[in-house]
UniProtKB/TrEMBL annotation:
One of its GO terms (molecular function) is cysteine-type peptidase activity. The keyword Hydrolase applies. Residues 230-358 form the NlpC/P60 domain. This is Hydrolase Nlp/P60. Pfam families: NLPC_P60, SLT_2. Belongs to the peptidase C40 family. It comes from Cellulomonas chitinilytica. The keyword Phosphoprotein does not apply. Transmembrane segments: none annotated. Keywords: Hydrolase, Protease, Thiol protease.
């Protein structure tokens, strides 16, 4: 069986103009058949096209900034005020770097200091335009002004650091619930979350690039998902290789045009496993109970490689399937088309990681 597997994959690769050593693809990945995942996201809810983010990587889908809940406080008596142009430039810069709607940052700025009009340190010691505690600043403070210094009292630094914190807290992961969790992490109060969302909506809302479905954002996973057998890996990779040369299209999920996560999702569907729609959500899904991380150098065919790509700091933006670990080759929707590419160049990316779906054998 193993010898036939190597010959089959090598033959498919040769047809694509790529000569592979079949033996390099022969590995033991477990003995049991994979079963359908508990994370069924075939109906992912309201998907919105993302057209303001360019570049190869994550699928072009997202979701609207969620509406506020009923429990509010400051926003009940303090209506949103116009954003000073100088401050708006900073919100937009933070939004561009971290791929967030600028209105979400404006919502925080309005809630915290009325866009800098009330910037005195809080009774708890929070400082600056976006009101950071010094300890939090020490971890998440970044330079937004370009002077090489992350200064808690610098407005540009404060806004950029708020965007950094939100993405690190998972604002783009898990749909609207992920947004609410990230805002709750910023200030542990439901009225605060709803105030910010009220203001953000007033300033125009916007689309967050990411999977609108919350599946995978938790930590329970599917304990019934066994290791993936060699037969299943062969089936998945054989299917993937038959699509070589099909065009990469931003936001496409088949059947003959693909983005990276749409292609990966379709490949795993061939063996009865339903992955979430986007690279970020797929990473969260496998990292929270549906697989385990693999050390570089120990990857096997069928493993998933994640990296940050164009979505910016703190956000997974690209996913690849390992084809030949000896030569560090993938099968993926990348570049201009589905192809076999090297993942060696990705190894220095901030969020580079390798994961195996299913339990350890």
């Amino acid at each position: 069986m193993f010898k036939a597997f190597g010959a089959l994959v090598a033959a498919v690769a040769v047809l694509a103009g790529l000569v592979l050593i079949g033996a390099a693809l022969i590995v033991a990945i477990g003995a049991q058949a994979a079963t359908e995942s508990a994370c069924d996201v075939t109906g992912v809810g309201a998907i919105t096209a993302v057209t303001d983010v360019s570049g190869q990587g994550e699928g072009g889908i997202g979701f609207e900034v969620p509406a506020p809940g009923v429990e509010r406080l400051a926003s009940l008596k303090n209506p949103p005020v116009p954003v000073p142009e100088r401050i708006k430039v900073m919100y937009v810069a933070g939004a561009d770097r971290y791929h967030l709607p600028w209105a979400l940052l404006a919502g925080i700025g309005m809630e915290e200091t009325v866009h800098g009009r009330a910037r005195a340190a809080s009774s708890a010691g929070a400082q600056g335009l976006m009101q950071f505690m010094p300890a939090t600043w020490g971890r998440y403070g970044v330079d937004g002004s370009g002077d090489g210094i992350a200064d808690i009292r610098n407005d540009a630094d404060s806004v950029m650091s708020a965007a950094n914190y939100l993405t690190a807290a998972g604002v783009a992961s898990g749909g609207p619930d992920g947004v609410r969790r990230a805002l709750f992490a910023y200030n542990h109060a439901q009225w605060y979350v709803n105030d910010v969302l009220f203001y953000a909506t007033a300033y125009g809302g916007g689309v967050i690039a990411g999977d609108p479905d919350a599946c995978g954002a938790g930590g329970e996973g599917n304990p019934a998902l066994p290791p993936i057998s060699n037969d299943k890996v062969r089936q998945m990779l054989t299917w993937a290789q038959t699509h070589l040369g099909e065009p990469y299209v931003y936001g496409a999920a088949g059947p003959q045009q693909w983005d990276c996560s749409g292609f990966t999702r379709a490949a795993f569907a061939q063996i009865g496993i339903t992955l979430p729609r986007t690279a970020s959500a797929q990473h969260d899904w496998v990292a929270h109970g549906n697989g385990f991380r693999v050390v570089l150098g120990q990857e096997r065919p069928g493993d998933l490689v994640f990296t940050d790509s164009y979505l910016g700091p703190n956000q997974v933006g690209h996913v690849m399937i390992v084809l030949d670990p000896t030569r560090k080759l993938t099968v993926e929707a990348g570049g201009d088309e589905v192809g076999n590419y090297s993942y060696a160049a990705w190894e220095t990316h901030h969020l580079f990681s390798i994961w195996r779906v299913g339990a350890a054998a």
